[in-house]
Amino acid sequence: MKDFMDKDFLLETETAKHLFHDYAETMPLIDYHCHISPREIYENRRFDNLVEVWLGGKNPDGTYFGDHYKWRVMRSNGVSEDYITGDKPAYERFLKFVESLEMAIGNPMYHWCNLELRQFFGYNKPLTMENAEECWNYVNEKLRNDPELTVRGIMKKANVAMVGTTDDPIDSLEWHEKIAADPSINVKVCPSFRPDKAINITKEGFKEYIGKLAESVGKTSLDSADEVIDALISRLEFFAKLGCRASDHGLDYIPFRPASKEDVNAAYKKAMNGEAVTTEEAEMYQTAVLMALGRAYHRLNIAMQLHYSCKRNANERMFRLLGPDTGFDMISQNTCGASIADFLSALDLTGECPKTILYSLNPADNEQLGTLIGCFQSDEIPGKIQHGAPWWFNDTKSGMEDQMKSLANLGLLGNFIGMLTDSRSFLSYARHDYFRRIMCNVIGTWVENGEYPNSDASLKKIVEGISYNNAKRYFGL
Questions:
Q1: Beta strands 310-311 and 330-331, pairing class
Q2: Quick one: CA torsion of 230, 233, 238, 242, rounded to 10 degrees?
Q3: Mind listing the pLDDT tens digit for each residue in 183-223?
Q4: Burial of 350 (0-12, 13-18, 19+ CB in 10 A)
Q5: Continuous segment of H or E residues that includes residue 52
């Protein structure tokens, strides 16, 4: 029997151990898509206890912060919401989480939490109810007193070279400006442009958001879709000046319904007048905005990330109680692969297709994406169109293996830009370690099975590329 999570955790062959320990393990980390706070980086926040960094809580504006992966684990164990997003004492919330985590055999959350305790705090015992109090006291003492366990210290310990935060077009980016001007901050913190609220024309709050977008560009109103596009591109150019390397779109599905300017503006005006907009009208507007942004991304050398096939806020009662992004989302099924291809093809016709990373929350789309990306590669950069890292519910051991094997079967795994955390927790960098172990094990197995030669120079290039070098090249760092 193997020891629990020893130094060779998940590494099943000698080749896998060599690839991980000699190449992957020490590479810097590029977390090109996450939801951490740039303000907390600048202010170098120090957490008071493990619950603050793991479970979070309620913001002053009534929204919630924290890791909703962990919240789902607790709900699945029948824990009252008072202990999850509520205001129960921190230690009681911690015990409820540990109690739930013990039931999470086979869930990556079990591995992630124990990896975080080991990597950042040197706590090497498996977390159980028996040692929960000891772990709580040990970790909290370090969080409060260890000079290396502030936010920046955690990032340094994880060997983070760059993070891409997720930012609204109307954001002032003041914290990014302050970070860029502070020579003591060694990690590169890049804003990412996420214009979902300006694209989701049928969703609640669209009209109010357009008013805020207008204010951000010094206008009292935006009277047409053309003006919305101009405002978004103006903000995008501002983001680019502050080092933006990527945009991000989180859409239910990717539409493609080209239409005349007149029809697009008519749909926009209906929405702004409070009238119901049909699906067809919404898709006309969304297509026009996405096409204009795609061209701008190409001009500014900003990668376009497209996330889709998620049904958000599936539980209406809990959405009304807690709001969005609180752990009540699920995998959806969409048939928009052809629309994505038509969208990229339209951009490609004029030589304006940007670097693009495609993520479907539905793993059934792996092979479709593997064939789609091969249709739009170019000599601009190896792997210009990427099958994105296994996203959200797919960043499990099997999900990572399936994504990499699909990409290897149908494309070039060696040009993959690797993993991201998509996380709101600064301790989540341990997920890169998890991914790298799985990646090295997949490749090591192929080598030991005689499916790829034991060529150390080639394997080193592939492993270090997927771990760090490919993303460094892709994002121009």
A1: antiparallel
A2: 180
A3: 999 999 999 999 999 999 999 999 999 999 999 999 999 99
A4: exposed
A5: helix 50-54
